[in-house]
Amino acid sequence: MTAKLVINADLPKNRINKNIYGHFAEHLGRCIYEGIWVGEDSPIPNTDGIRNDVVTALKKLNIPVLRWPGGCFADEYHWKDGIGPKEGRKRMVNTHWGGVVENNHFGTHEFFRLCELLECEPYICGNVGSGTVQEMSEWVEYMTFDGESPMAGWRQENGQEKPWALKYFGVGNENWGCGGNMRPEYYADLYRRYQTYVRNYGDNKLYKIAGGANVDDYNWTEVVMREAGGMMDGLSLHSYTIPGSWEEKRPALGFDEAEWIETMQKSLRMDELITRHTAIMDKYDPQKRVGLIIDEWGTWFLNEPGTNPGFLYQQNTLRDALVAGIHLNIFHNHSGRVQMTNIAQMVNVLQALILTEGDKLLLTPTYHVFEMYKVHQDNELLEVAFESPLYTWGDVTVPQLSVSASRDSEGKVYVSICNLSHEADAALSLDIRGTQAGRVSGQILTHTELGAHNTFDAPDTVAPAAYEGAELTDGVLHCVLPPASVTVLTLK
Ligand code: AHR
Predict the structure, then answer these.
(1) Going by CA atoms, what residue is nearest to atom 5 of ligand 1?
(2) Alpha-carbon distance 420 to 264, whole Å?
(3) Which of 226, 228, 409, 450 lies 20 to 30 Å from 80 when distance is taken between CA atoms?
(4) Each residue's pLDDT tens digit, 58-103
(5) Which residue has the least CA distance to atom 2 on ligand 1?
(6) Residue whose C-alpha is closest to residue 405's, from 323, 487, 288, 296
(7) pLDDT of the residue at 59
(8) Mean per-residue pLDDT, 4-9
(9) Is 139 exposed, middle or buried (0-12, 13-18, 19+ CB in 10 A)?
(10) 50 by DSSP, 3-state: which?
(11) C-beta separation of 140 from 199 below 8 A
(12) Would the pTM of this model clear 0.85, i.e. be above it?
């Protein structure tokens, strides 16, 4: 059966904020240390201590925004420990993540340098769980005050004459859990208080993000929006894709078809979560002024055998590519409310885009999806009308297709399509109306093995290839997409 899709290229809906393609780097395992920061004296080629190979690879993704320093780490991070001469920086225990020593060599100045190298916006998450109002307030003063003040003077002594431009600031992380085990009523009050002292200095206008719900905790969204919605610009949401269960996670490799479809089903749940959290936000903010900021998402598997369980290091397969493609399509289709998302995490942790081992680096299937999809950044969202065929395995049934489309400022149309089925092709006819497009090209990411992944010995096992199977006749595009594939088509 051929699925029929209709796209009205001349009826754009809203802009797809490029920040949907944001990232997250926490002081966790080998993300910051080893994955990004190796120090100035490392034999690994670096710029001011930051790995050149990682920066070069990440720059190809047009990363718009990077969240730091956590995660759970943020609510026990004391920023003053991470500034000044490195030899004098406090050594602390990273209690959340493996109990290892954190030497604080990567701090505020190093983070802004990383963002400068990546040409992305910094997004800093402040400490509500174990930090004071004064500490948070002084951090903002340190980073953004242009003039004479104790914190600005200290910044200058540490080598940064001018303030940095900082837009995105999070007031706590997962304050229902690792960020203080709070009730929403209590957090809402704390949010109101802390954010009061998160000042806008000079021209630096902050976009304040309140700590949001865990998965389907709709009551959290309800209470925080009701009590503090008027004092925030964004409200976060965290939801991971976890085959098995939180208590009994499954390995990243060696899964069967049942676990494949379970992963697809759990990824698709993001659509329901956004719809329901959005409905609550709409009640308090019908103008959609407050953005939904999904600042942690991605797969969470068992750590790789032989690695520290607190480091959350996992392999990344074709399955992760599908998870990424499905999520990005859902985010596009909800981009009237979703203004930023941050995949967890950038390097060596959870659904990483890059894995490193010593001086070696590999790009994961997830990396390739982000590179293929980047053409959607800041485009106009186009509605795709279609009824997906179904994909059934065992007692699970899900739509076989996940699709989104956009149009850029030159009128080119991009359609990204995931075929979720592990065994069936997907035959499609796309009726693309309202465009003069006469040519189509495409890129596809797929493999015959569902568990295919890249290793340091075989880094190109899963890599994008040109897709030649699309034909455009009288404005209707016909194609057949292989099972377990992610495809991006360009029409011009
Ligand atoms: O990304 C790993 C952890 O997951 C983060 O530190 C925390 O916010 C979430 O529970």
Answers:
(1) 71
(2) 7
(3) 228
(4) 999 999 999 999 999 999 999 999 999 999 999 999 999 999 999 9
(5) 71
(6) 487
(7) 98
(8) 95
(9) buried
(10) strand
(11) yes
(12) yes
Per-residue confidence at 474, pLDDT binned at 50, 70, 90?
confident
Q: Is 295 in the pocket of ligand 1 (CB under 6 A)?
A: no
Helix (H, G, I), strand (E, B) or coil at 294: strand
- The whole-number pLDDT of residue 475 equals 83
First to last CA, the chain: 27
Q: Answer whether 70 contacts ligand 1 (Cβ < 6 A).
A: yes
Cβ atoms within 10 Å, residue 15: 15
Q: What are phi and psi of 102, to 5 degrees?
A: -105, 120
Buried b or exposed e, range 254-272, using 16+ CB within 10 angstroms: ebeeebbbbbbbbbbebbe
| Backbone dihedral angles phi then psi of residue 29, each to the nearest 5 degrees | 55, -130
| Contact call for residues 389 and 401 (beta carbons, < 8 A) | yes
- Residues 179, 30, 207, 200, CA torsion sign: positive
Nearest to 169 by CA among 79, 279, 247: 79
Residue type, 90: K
Give whole-number Cα distances, 81 to 49, 89, 105, in Å. 18, 6, 9
CB distance 26 to ligand 1 below 6 Å? yes
Pocket test for ligand 1, best of 246, 296, 343, 348 (most atoms within 8 A of CB): 296
Cβ of 296 closer than 6 Å to ligand 1, yes or no, is: yes
The catalytic site residues sit at 174, 296
Most informative mutation of 30, 31, 67, 72 for ligand 1 (most atoms within 8 A of CB): 72
Ligand 1: residue of 31, 174, 343 to mutate (most ligand atoms within 8 A of CB) is 174
**Contact in structure between 386 and 442 (CB atoms under 8 Å):** no
Residue with CA nearest ligand 1 atom 8: 71
* Alpha carbon of 71 to ligand 1 centroid (Å): 5
DSSP secondary structure string for all residues of 114-148: HHHHHT-EEEEEE--SS--HHHHHHHHHHHH--SS
Kindly report the protein residue whose alpha carbon is nearest to atom 3 of ligand 1: 71
Matching residue, tokens 């949010």: 191
Residue identifier of the C-alpha nearest atom 6 of ligand 1: 71
Q: In angstroms, what is the span from residue 323 Cα to ligand 1's centroid?
A: 18
Ligand 1 pocket residue status of 346, Cβ below 6 Å: no
What is Dmax (Cα atoms) for the chain?
Answer: 70
